[in-house]
Design goal:
This protein is an alpha/beta fold. It contains 17 helices and 19 strands.
Length: 554
């Protein structure tokens, strides 16, 4: 009898495992939303739908993204440090040729390979010049939206005069309010999906990025909203407010956020209508701290700074994750989690492989989230930005207790470095600069930042707010992308490939020529197949393009 009970229990357990479905995944990535810009956090803006994700999910209290747009998207899609990817200091501008190396595995590629239906609805901003950078080549079955940012909220959706609205590489002319169009498309896609297969839906909204626009009823609703925001305590942001005599952007910003909430509510309602709310993981996050500068309208209080800076207000973003079947509703997760952790965490939740042949910089946070366990950082976290001012770098390195913020400004004749050290465990709002009290810690952290920045490919993004002289935008951005058939089959190594390792050595902390070569491999000569020399042989001039000089001595 005992054996029979055990056997029946085993059968029930096996049946439960077999019946368990892989969860659907939806990522709502909003653009420039402030830490304090939901009604749940006291903002004078109606956001009941966004609030519901926090109330019915887990509030990620220490979720970190990069200070600006493209780097966050690169980190989200790959689980890797955008400094290594060459997309760290600035966003990918329309006149740039940058993208993410095809060697990098994107999150939707892993889900697609595991049988998931995949779609992106919204803003891409990870490369547009060649088809290898296009969403449909990075794991998305369907792409509806814009390659660039700042295409406007009303049709025609254009960037620098060129149409930028497409479905899978073909320009479309859908009319209406951009935020609502994305919600409509997501609703259609979910309802028309193959219900026998799970899905992965990525919704990177343009809202509430400037320049701000909203339907008239929302504009009217907030027309008399008073701007009561405190200054951010970041000189680079607050000086824009002092310099700009224009009326506050806060009322229009509130209108854009309200409309965004309505759009998200439509997608959430679709999940309920389809009966799949319980089995869908929903991640909501801003791509960086709120744009609190003049023209932005966001509020990150009580955090310091905002978009473009590496204070907490620029990198610690509003975020929550909901999975009704597994995660405790209304809970708060206090441990640090970064945008690089999303890929390995969601892959673990879906029980799929990341497929990555490269070491991920993100961690699988699923066990910690399921048990709401305090989880210490395994290593320091780094972020940087050179946006918007060319030659003005905002960088940081931090662990669970200490954080160094560096502002590095350069001209043709000098470089100035301002170090600010905070104990973010006790001073999360960065009120007390302890740099003078702990100079050795400042030196140690500064050297870590220096070594980390040396990983950036020399042709990676830099702040370029204007195009090269004489550059012209296309009339249609879909036609601007060079098709695969017209591209070489391999990534170009550039000129002087035989000397790449030598040049890498000579550049030192200026950046890297050999793509994503770990320091250990670089020292062992493993990164350039045409120049197999060890670090010591290279240092003492004992190398030739065919190997160590001793092998060819007479």
């Amino acid at each position: 009898m005992h054996h029979l009970k055990y056997f029946l229990a085993l059968l029930l357990a096996l049946a439960s495992i077999l019946e368990a479905k892989q969860p659907n995944v939806i990522i709502f990535l909003v653009d420039d939303l402030g830490w304090a810009d939901t009604s749940l956090r006291g903002a004078p803006i109606d956001t009941p739908n966004i609030d519901s994700i926090f109330k019915e999910g887990v509030d990620l209290q220490r979720f970190y993204a990069t200070p600006i747009c493209s780097p966050t998207r690169a980190a989200l899609m790959t689980g890797r440090d955008p400094m290594k990817l060459g997309v760290s200091y600035a966003v990918i501008m329309p006149w740039m040729n940058n993208g993410i190396h095809p060697e990098e595995i994107f999150m939707p590629q892993a889900f697609q390979a595991a049988g998931y239906q995949t779609a992106i609805v919204g803003k891409w901003h990870l490369g547009h010049s060649q088809a290898v950078f296009h969403p449909n080549q990075r794991g998305f079955d369907n792409f509806y939206g814009h390659l660039h940012t700042e295409v406007g909220y009303f049709s025609p959706f254009a960037n620098l005069g060129g149409t930028d609205f497409q479905r899978n590489g073909v320009t479309i002319d859908d009319e209406g309010y951009e935020t609502f169009l994305l919600a409509d498309e997501a609703e259609r896609w979910i309802k028309n999906r193959d219900s026998e297969k799970p899905f992965f839906l990525y919704m990177p909204f343009i809202a509430p990025h400037s320049p701000l626009e909203a339907p008239e009823e929302y504009v009217t609703k907030y027309a008399n909203l008073e701007d009561t925001r405190e200054l951010t305590r970041s000189e680079s942001i607050d000086r824009t407010r002092r310099m700009n005599p224009a009326p506050s952007a806060r009322p229009l910003y509130a209108a854009v956020v309200d409309a965004l909430d309505v759009a998200i509510g439509k997608v959430l309602e679709t999940l309920k209508d389809e009966g799949i709310e319980e089995d869908t993981i929903i991640l909501f996050s801003s791509d960086n701290g709120g744009a609190a500068y003049a023209g932005g309208g966001a509020d990150n209080y009580p955090l310091r700074g905002g978009k473009g800076t590496t204070y907490e207000g620029g990198i610690r973003v509003i975020a929550a994750i909901q999975w009704k079947a597994r995660l405790q509703a209304g809970s708060t997760f206090e441990s640090a989690m970064t945008v690089m952790d999303v890929f390995p965490t969601l892959a673990a939740a879906a029980d799929i492989s990341t497929l990555s042949t490269k070491s991920l910089d993100g961690r699988n946070m699923l066990p910690a989230l399921l048990g709401n366990k305090d989880t210490k950082l395994a290593s320091e976290i780094y972020f940087a930005s050179e946006t918007p001012n060319y030659g003005e770098f905002h960088t940081t390195v931090f662990n669970d207790e200490w954080k160094l913020v560096q502002v590095i400004t350069s001209s043709l004749y000098e470089v100035n470095i301002e170090n600010q050290l905070f104990n973010i465990k006790n001073d999360p709002n960065e009120e007390n600069n302890l740099a003078n009290k702990y100079p050795s810690l400042v030196r140690d952290f500064a050297e870590k930042i220096r070594n980390w920045r040396a990983l950036h490919p020399i042709s990676g993004t830099r702040s370029q707010l204007v195009p090269p002289p004489g550059w012209r935008a296309p009339k249609d951005w879909s036609s601007y992308t060079i098709p695969l058939a017209e591209l070489d089959s391999d990534a170009s190594l550039g000129f002087g490939a035989h000397a790449h390792q030598v040049l890498d050595f000579l550049l030192k902390d200026h950046g890297r020529i050999v793509y994503d070569c770990p320091d250990g491999d670089w020292q062992r000569g493993k990164c350039d197949p045409g120049y197999q020399c060890t670090y010591q042989e290279l240092r003492y001039g004992k190398c030739t393009p065919n190997g160590p000089r001793e092998q060819h001595a007479h």
